[in-house]
Structures are given as C-alpha cells and as structure tokens.
C-alpha cells in the first residue's frame, strides 16, 4: 500500500482536495484511519496512555512492527487540512536525539491524528515528580544527562531550526524518556495547530502556571526567552525532585521557584537538592544547576541566557561564576491574586490570560493558587510575537 492509498475510500471531491494538498507535502508519512484503528485495537481504552490538552493518546503497534504513540487531536483543535499538513511538514523535518520523532499523520476526513515514536518510560512528570508510580531511580548522573539533553533539544529548536521554533508549553509532562532514560522533548511545533479562538495552552492551570514566564502569562509575549524561563523551572524540578508547586508544604515553601530564590539569598541552596539522592551527588554541580535555573528565570528577558549558553553552562564550557543572579520574575509579583485585583504596575496590554486567571481565582479559597484545586481551563493569547531577544 502506498502512502496515499487511504484516498481510495474517499469521495471524488475529497480525493481531489487531499491529492492537491498532499502532492505539495514531501517526507511526511500518511496513515489511513483504518490502519491506526487496527494499530490501537479500535482505540481501545486499554491502549490509552493518557490525555492532554490536545486529546487522548494511545499506544499502538504499527504494521511495520514499530510501537507508536498516537495523539488524536480533539475536534476543537481541528484545522483545515492544508494548515494541518503545513505544520506537520515542519515537524516531520526535524530530527534530534532529544526531540520526539514524528512518524507521520492521518488527515482523513475530519480526523487529525499525529503518530509519534513511542517512548517506553513515559514522562518526567510521571516518573520523577510522582504523578505515577515509578521504580526508576534517578541518580545524579542520570539527572545531569536529562538536564543537558533537554537543554540541547531546546537549543536546537531555538537556534538551529529555521525559522526557529518556540515550544510555549515546556513542562515535565512534555519531557518523555526512552528505554535508556534519554530525554525527548514532545509537543514542539504544536502551538500553531490550535485556532486562536480555542486553546493554545490548555491544561490544569495550577500545574502549568508555575512554568510560565510573567511576560508570557500577563501579556502573552512569547519569545525564546519565555521558553528559557520555563526550562529554568524544569531544571530546578529535576535537581530537587519537586514539582513547581506543592500544596502539602507550608505556605512559604509551596512555590519552588520562590523557595529556590529564598535559599539562594541565604546561601543554603544545598538544602533543596533531592533527598532521594541520599547525598550521592556532586554538591557543587547540583548547586550550579540550581543557579542556572535561577539565571534562566530572571525577570529581565535580556538577562536570561540563550539555550545554547545554558548547554555550555551545564557542561562547564562556560563558567557562571561571573554571572550576577537577579530575582526571578514571579507571576505573584504582577498581581495580587488574593485580592483579585491588578497591581498598580499592571501593564496596559494585559490580555485574556489576566482575565482568565482573575476569573479562575474567584473559585479559589483565600489562599489563592494554594488551594490545591486543579481546574481544566482554556487560555487564549492573541498577541504572539518573538522579538528575538
Ligand atoms: N511519544 C509518546 N510516547 C509515550 N507516551 C507518550 C507519548 N506522547 C505522549 N505520551 C503520554 O501521553 C500522555 C498525554 O500526553 P499529552 O501530550 O497529550 O498531554 P500532556 O503532556 O499531559 O499535556 P499537554 O496536552 O498540555 O501537553 C502523557 O502521560 C504522556 O506521557
Ligand atoms: Mg504533552
């Protein structure tokens, strides 16, 4: 069967349209809906791995014997076939050791399905941050490899792919691990698949807000440096083994980034390093990684390093000794969540997200985001731009 054989079961006008569109698309594997149905045993719940903002994800066995993760984009995120395939082509062309490989897609009728390489060890959120049960021990060497690998993947997307790709949703659940615990970044290039009136980051707000750079959260200002901020939060999570927010801790310790800054100021960063390492780690290097996390999350975009510089800092090629670390940008500094009022310094161009957060916090208890509620929500940003800072 050739790549386009699924066209044969379509109406003539649909065949024409798909033929016209796909003839301009090279290097993309097309799967028939039927083939994917067989591969997932009719999208059996047994094969469902999880569900994110885009829709459900299934484990599948393809005809060639390869295991795949099949992401079925929900109806809300549907684009026209042309736009969809244009995005797919961009993602298909990208290959890097630290990026999840897209095998291909299905765009039959109203179906929009992505077929990815299957990663055996699920995500960092699942294995390291305790959302699931995992027997994997993340020793210091493994963590170093994960932090560096993820940074390399982002440096590639930001600086070597042309036009560069901003991820926009960096978080532990988007870092997948293969059999050897090599990290692979997932969901890059997907942001544009979501129409402006729908979601661009659809997620549990309380879980994701901790990764968002303030300028992104407040003004929708998307740049490579907003990705760098999110990477910084992730880096601190990997070293500490803690989620960016933990409601079981005393209030002053719940927000990981704030806590990291507090301990940095007291010269006590060591206290944050994951106790499950049982002291078996390079203290100097672990503290350096935490400082790099702080450098990445500084309020000023210009002060945040580029991802290729982050790689050099992690590997020791560039020293961080001369770097002055300034206070991280914290969303809580931009808005008084408890009073649900914008701060006096609130920028004029505050967008939907501010309204969104304000309206969501109405539902929270008096401790605001510390209520522990998880809220499925939709944010819409209209002003997306990269000033290439
Ligand atoms: N290529 C893959 N291999 C193995 N598991 C995967 C793969 N892609 C996704 N998953 C798993 O499927 C689940 C859902 O992933 P999905 O990306 O849809 O949601 P998410 O990352 O939790 O949230 P978001 O939609 O905001 O990215 C996650 O548990 C993830 O670990
Ligand atoms: Mg994901």
TrEMBL record:
Q: Which CDD domains match?
A: STKc_IRAK (cd14066)
A single Gene Ontology MF term assigned here is: ATP binding
Q: Which UniProt key words apply to this protein?
A: ATP-binding, Kinase, Membrane, Nucleotide-binding, Receptor, Transferase, Transmembrane
Protein kinase domain: residues covered: 43-320
Write down the InterPro entries for this protein, in alphabetical order.
CR_Ser/Thr_kinase, Kinase-like_dom_sf, Prot_kinase_dom, Ser/Thr_kinase_AS
Top-level taxon in the UniProt lineage = Eukaryota
Question: Which protein is depicted?
Answer: Transmembrane signal receptor
